[in-house]
Amino acid sequence: MAQKQLTTSVAQYIATTQFQDIPAEAIQIIKNAFIDTIGVAFAGVKEESVQILWDFLQEEGGKENATVWGKSGLKSSATLTALANGTMAHALDFDDLNAKSTHAHPSASLVPAILAAGEEVNASGKELITAYFIGLEVMGYIGRILTYNHYHIGWHGTATNGVLGCTAAVASLYKLNVEQIENALGIAVSHVSGTRQNFGTMTKPFHAGKAAHSGITAAKLAKKGFTADRHSLEAPLGLFKLYVKDSEPYITKEIGERVELLETKLTLKKYPCCYGSHRAIDGTTRLLAHGIDVEKIQNITVTGPVNAFTPLIHKRPKTGLEAKFSLEFPISLILLDQKLDISSFEDSTVLREDVQRLIQKIERREDPSIYVETSAIDEGYIEVAITLTDGNMISERVTHPKGSIENPLSTEEVVEKFIACVQTVLTQSEAEQFADELLRLESLDNLDGIRSFL
User: What is the secondary structure of 398-441 as a DSSP string?
Assistant: First the structure.
């Protein structure tokens, strides 16, 4: 494909893809993504970052076109609502991810953007599903060109690639034509930013909200006739020239030649923290069966592929937010408390003397012999080895943690997680009714039923 046609090709894909083009298996994955994303957002309503954004929305006002989730009682513009809901969806780091193509947490931005814009245009369930499919496929296509190196050097794909996915999804809902979509993508490219340095702060979940906000903004402006460079992906100063490090964009297929949602799928999380630690968490949980006396632990070595620990930037966390991006904290807490859940990530828990003492005994080790094709946080294996003071060593190796592509949560397990999460706000009966509504998303003529639970 000629480089000069790339943005146009993506725009044509967005403009022409319809519900009937979506494989049945992908439709169920998308419904699970809606269920999971809304659930973890509700679970995050009490997070300080969410409360600050709710105050911000009340101060800023905005046309009341969309509903702020979590029974907040707030309505605002689609853009501000998406900002709040996207941040809420990523606040606990309990939302899904796609490590192999988008290099992002796609649903935390896509679902809030789609529902906010969907309320504005009174979209049907099929239109919502189509918008998600388009957004994910565009993110997967662009993410493959950016490569994992984009993430590795410090960019956060949820904040960067997420803007393009949300723009594509909302352009579908707003029914933009090809020229308008080209302009929307050009506007979106000027919103691309967000670094991993902010992991462990409120700004990390804000990345998802900002991507949703920017995607709606780009699509709205383009629909009104706002212009941008219409070759913004492949142009000499475009996205790929600036964000693909030290190489030309590597393009082997046109968009639509593969179905990213079926090829790389989504990872739905079992634990409310960075997925980079989940194999180690499962390995540590298995080690509990050995009846370990924590006082007799001499040291703990966690071995994985090169770059397996890239997102886990806090080796000595001091806050609950930092602990979500730590390898050492969840391992220590499981050994001490035999559990890890939403309530585990409190500042007071992280600062416990026994936790901090055990953290000091954990060492990371990267083994270049562990083969990885694309993503080290999703491929190869992690081994947790504990050496005791008597010299004995016990270890567990995990390749596919619960929730991974190869060991996924079933739809029933996704619904169970959803019901547990939304009961921070809804009753058991309301939670079950809400889940039923989302499970039949493709049959909904409008959003009235969903809106009643938000």
Answer: ESS-TTSSSSPPPHHHHHHHHHHHHTTTS-HHHHHHHHHHHHTG
